[in-house]
Amino acid sequence: MRTITASGKAAAILLGALALSGCADKWDRPALGIDAPGRWKDDSESRPVWPAADWWRGFGSAELTRLIEEAERSNQDIAQAKARIEQADAQVRINGASLIPLISTSGDSSLQRSAGSSRLIGGLQAQGSASYEIDFWGKNRANVISAKASALSSRFGAEVIALSTVTSVADTYFALMGAQERLAIARGNVKSAQTIFDAIQARVEVGTASALDRAQQRSVLDQQKATIPSIEQEIRTNETALALLLGRPPVRVDIKGGRLATLKTPKVAPGIPSQVLARRPDVREAEANLTATDADVTAARAAFLPSFNLTAQGGFESVALRTLFSSQSTFYSLGAGLTQPILNPQLPGNLDLAKGQYRENLFAYRQTTIQSFVDVENALISVRKTTEQERLQQAAVKSAREAYDIAQAQLREGAVDITTVLTTQQTLFSAQDTLVNVRLSRFQAIVSMFSALGGGWAASGKPPGAGPVIAAATAGAPAR
After folding, report:
1. Is residue 68 part of a domain?
2. What is the pTM of this model?
3. What is the pLDDT of residues 201-223, one digit of tens each?
4. Does 242 map to a domain?
5. Which of 124, 319, 383, 475 is most exposed, with the fewest beta carbons within 10 Å of its own?
């Protein structure tokens, strides 16, 4: 009866182990499912012009270059991203420790006296031990692959932050320049409106203009004066935004700025969409996260299977120091162990969790790739249309200036009515302000194009256009 009971227990244990191991079914990795088109919808360029590492120099502004270089050194978000890289590298070393034997040494001495005896008995011992888990199913190696992919992801994440910081500096600097230019125009408009007002005042005094004419022009003058405070506020707000990006208090930042019209227009053009995927750090980051969770699935599956451990221990033991290291004092032991999970409810949950995280990262990867295509298409149309709009707006300003000059001359001669003068000056003032905003939009569209193409960053050690992270990280990975 005892034999049958023992056999039944053994069979139950075996069945439980087989059932638990059966949960580690084959991992059918879902396809990436990336639909990379062969061309851009709004691209007429035949040859790609990829961003240089220091693409911002193409704008020809020494001050912008200085601000960006300082932001690279001092921006706090970039500093935090670098600290996360250090943590990820440390985790790689922690996970990698499971692939090498654990070795330790110890030594101790003791004195003891038996009850009823005055004799002291001493003991000395020096020993070393080693243990090693044979990575038969690739669990530990999968954990290392996951950690390496996460470390690579942290590098691409740092590139994302760095690129975002650089583009933010450029956008904010251009916005500040635009506000400075609008402020100069507004002050010029006030001066022009004041000149017209004085001319109308003189006509009122001689009876060739009415009080209504004067009141209408005063309204124009007051409106132009009222635009100045908000523009000055915009300038200060952009200065404080730059201070934050530079990691300095606003009082420590002094921006000279200038006119947008003095900037150069750098050349940039995309290649085919699939090349953009290899260059954008956010896509590479999502790809690395996907690789990490794929390795986590491998580790979770391997946890169902038996683990094999080897242990060794040896040393010297003696009651006298002079004989401690003699051959008669040596001892050693060797051992091997096998551990098979029988009933562990956490293991199926861990596997399902890893699979769910992989699928989540897969959808995030797909979303990031689609977003990259959208960003490039938006930048292409924005650059093209703002360039066209700037050209047309320049013509509008020129025409408005001619009409205003004619109206001014005729006003001095008394050959034009006040309504015509009011209309021409309002048209000119509005056209000038619109031109600055359109020019700002064009430069910011160019910056968006550089950002959409991944900039020129390679902080991860993988230059733009390097091979896919998934293929690189899973090379030599355990068989599925």
Report:
1. yes
2. 0.82
3. 988 888 888 899 899 989 999 99
4. yes
5. 475
